[in-house]
Amino acid sequence: MDEKDLTYKDAMEEIDNILESLESETPDIDNVANKVSRASELLELCRKKLLKAEEDIEKILAQK
């Protein structure tokens, strides 16, 4: 799935899966670094989606 097509819900689910795996698996530093990097990317994507939603809502409310 392309990053642009990833929904907020899907990104949050992937973050949850990453957290679960980090909590339950024996740490492998290379694997941990990759998972933390991916989680960081997903969090940034979620942040952007939330900001966009906020802007859209503000525009709609400003029209009234």
| Tertiary shape | elongated
Taking all residues together, what is the mean pLDDT? 92
Give the quaternary arrangement of the chains: single chain
Distance between the termini: 37 Å
Count of runs of 4 or more consecutive helical residues: 2
- Number of beta strands: 0
Secondary structure category: mainly alpha
Strand content: under 5%
What percent of residues adopt helix (DSSP H or I)? over 70%
Rg over CA atoms, rounded to whole Å, is 16 Å
Number of domains: 1
Main beta sheet, described?
Answer: none
Question: Can you characterise this structure?
Answer:
There is one protein chain. The termini are far apart. This protein is mainly α and about 60 residues long. The protein has helices at about 10-25, 30-60. It has one domain (about 5-60). The model has no long low-confidence stretch (mean pLDDT about 90). The protein contains two helices and no strands. Helix 1 runs antiparallel to helix 2 (about 30-60).
In short:
This protein has helices at residues 8-24, 29-62. The chain is an all-alpha fold. The chain has one domain.
Describe how the helices and strands are arranged:
Blueprint: H1 8-24, H2 29-62
Main attributes of the structure:
single chain; 64 residues; mainly alpha; elongated
